[in-house]
Design a protein that fits this description.
This protein is an alpha/beta fold. The protein contains 16 helices and 39 strands. It is 26% helix and 29% strand. Helix 3 packs parallel to helix 6 and helix 4 packs across helix 5.
């Protein structure tokens, strides 16, 4: 069911089950009303200001007596024709304007004024801000700091607001263990509850999580019914699909009304929407990206409706896609993206889309919806993106697209530590993809280490092939060691790439277009090894760390990658080659003020020391311009 239709069906079920349409009103001190939604209008009981007040330091005067006064024709006012006032003082009766202090000189008791003032000049009139009896705030208004100040100025000491919505999160699953535990094999930390409770609190709710319930239908049912008695919304985590231990839909149907099971949204289509004991219930998928999106799409507007306020909408921006983005027909596809401004245009780089990729939530700057009727977007195509980060921050972001390297992550942290307004975001699409992004104006710099087999050199020959006549610069980032990442102790006795020939070893590869993949193909060709003979050649990972993770998990005997990635996972390393890793950019961008901190960082000895601590890097040429 489409998301909009699913939400409507859920609201209909809530009405039929006599769920409260609004939360109860409560009276709170005005100082405690921040973020609360007014349940009654707020009327001014006093005018603000309550009298005519001086808006400047100076003297109160009768404006008619200042006519013609100027620096060259000053006027002298006797003592009984003016009153000295400070900002905020009442203007005495009989006076109708204020002359600023800097336009007044005193001669004994008389005041010499050097500027004429019209009536009410530099004076705040009674009721200028708000008049007694005036509507200050309507019902259904979420209180901001300025609203609190204004209500207090208009005489309010208390306001009537909706009580905060109460949200109870019920985590389920035999494999789930509390945060703080040391998970054993097959166990998963209950991070979803932390996230969902935080999302609810961010929306202005009271929220808490129950203890984890095992995959037992009776215990889950009891937990849901208990939560429903306490909450305005119950969120059941996991068990929403159709597997053996997925009980959420059945529990909701048995205890109340199951309105929806399955929504045309990716990620997160196995959503449960229903009602138990006059309380709305959501069943969220167990994958964190799906759970977060489910809360955004369904819980947030429901909670806003209970408070009687329109759901907040994120601002959006038009952006160009940095790479092709395929999608599945028939589902709204929500994709998190990283954003930066390149050549005056916002560029969106899609993040990994797995429903369990929690880091995509952390790194996202924006949210892109590919509608159900579209098969995706091409690179460079314009799309609308909801902003998760303010546009000024995005405009202070260096966009790097291309090959993955840990030094870029190190640089991103160092730049942010030096200047909190500056970011560096890198998207890992392989060296070839990075050069395409430079060609199409979709990044500031591209990370590349493309070996050119015919010449034995790196990157430079490809620039002439792909962008002939383009005025490009190449800046050396590092030299680094590439080799076979193997388990600790190298139990299979891997000596080099030639050992892949007989298919005895399982291998994990990098994606097409990656420099590491091209290095492998070159070396296999030189050794006379057919890639088809390599077990696992078709299995691809997007980064060196992902390759190392696969080896560490025992899913492969080896994979080609950098020494720093092997060290990060405590793995062994069989050297294969030492290669340069460069940054490619337009020559004009060398003088871009946004990139200046990056060039300063690459010249800093302290940063070189940080790189060396990763292992397998040579910084002798870091920051040098190669072309």
């Amino acid at each position: 069911m489409p998301a909009a239709a699913a939400f409507t069906a859920w609201l209909d079920a809530c009405r039929e089950a006599a769920c409260p349409e609004r939360l109860d009103p409560v009276r709170v001190p005005v100082a405690d009303a921040l973020g609360r939604v007014t349940a009654e209008p707020v009327w001014a009981t006093r005018s603000s200001p309550a009298a005519d007040l001086a808006a400047m330091d100076g003297i109160a005067v009768r404006s008619v007596e200042t006519s013609g006064a100027s620096p060259t024709t000053p006027k002298l006012l006797p003592p009984d024709h003016y009153v000295v006032v400070d900002t905020g003082d009442p203007v005495p009766e009989g006076f109708d304007a204020v002359v600023m202090r800097e336009n007044v000189h005193y001669e004994r008791d008389a005041a010499e004024i050097m500027a004429a003032v019209p009536p009410y000049q530099h004076q705040r009139s009674i009721g200028e801000d708000v008049s007694a009896g005036e509507l200050l705030l309507p019902e259904g208004h979420r209180m901001r700091p300025v609203d609190i100040a204004s209500a207090a100025a208009a005489g309010a000491t208390e306001v009537v607001v909706r009580r905060r919505p109460r949200v109870v999160v019920v985590p389920t699953g035999d494999e789930i263990v509390p945060v703080g535990s040391v998970p054993e094999h097959g166990e998963i930390l209950d991070t979803n509850s932390l996230m969902l409770v935080a999302q609810a609190r961010e929306a202005g709710c009271e929220a808490w999580a129950t203890p984890i319930e095992p995959d037992d239908v009776e215990r889950i049912g009891t937990a849901v019914r208990t939560a429903a008695a306490q909450a305005d919304l119950v969120v059941v985590v996991a068990g929403s699909s159709a597997g053996r231990d997925d009980y959420t839909a059945g529990v909701v149907a048995d205890l109340g009304v199951l309105a929806v099971h399955g929504v045309a949204v990716r990620p997160g289509h196995p959503v449960v929407l229903g009602v138990v004991d006059e309380t709305p219930v959501i069943g969220c998928p167990g994958y964190p990206v799906s759970a977060a999106l489910t809360f955004d799409i369904f819980a947030t507007p429901l909670l806003a409706g209970l408070e009687g306020v329109a759901p907040s909408r994120r601002p959006s921006v038009s952006a160009r896609l940095a790479r092709k983005l395929p999608s599945v027909i028939g589902m709204d596809d929500w994709v998190r993206v990283r954003l930066g401004a390149v050549h005056g245009e916002v560029v969106a780089s899609p993040l990994p889309r797995g429903a369990g990729v929690l880091t995509s939530l952390v790194r996202a700057d924006g949210l892109l919806r590919v509608p159900a009727g579209i098969e995706g977007h091409h690179a460079g195509e314009r799309v609308s993106v909801e902003l998760l980060r303010a546009l000024p921050e995005i405009e202070r972001t260096i966009v790097a697209i291309g090959s993955h390297d840990l030094v870029l992550d190190l640089a991103a942290n160092a730049l942010r530590a030096t200047d909190p307004t500056l970011s560096l975001v890198s998207t890992n699409v392989g060296s070839l993809g990075g050069l395409v992004a430079v060609r199409d104006g979709l990044c500031h710099v591209a990370g590349s280490h493309l070996l050119h087999p015919a010449t034995g050199t790196y990157t430079l020959p490809y620039l002439e092939d792909m962008m002939p006549g383009r005025d490009l610069a190449v800046v050396r980032l590092v030299h680094r060691e590439q080799g076979l990442i193997v388990p600790p102790g190298n139990p299979r006795g891997v000596a080099g790439l030639a050992d892949l020939a007989d298919g005895r070893l399982s291998y994990v590869n990098r994606q097409r277009g990656a420099g590491t993949r091209m290095l492998l193909d070159h070396e296999l060709s030189r050794l006379g090894v057919d890639p088809g003979e390599v077990q696992g050649y078709a299995r691809e990972e997007p980064t060196h760390l992902a390759v190392a993770a696969a080896v560490a998990a025992g899913r492969a005997d080896c994979g080609l990658g950098i020494l720093a990635a092997a060290r990060a996972f405590g793995l062994d390393f069989v050297p294969v080659a030492k290669e340069p890793y460069d940054l490619v950019l337009d020559v004009a961008a060398l003088d871009d003020p946004l990139l200046a901190p990056l060039w300063e960082l690459l010249a800093a000895p302290g940063f070189h020391d940080s790189i060396a601590s990763l292992g397998g890097y040579d910084t002798a040429e870091s920051g040098a311009r190669i072309r």
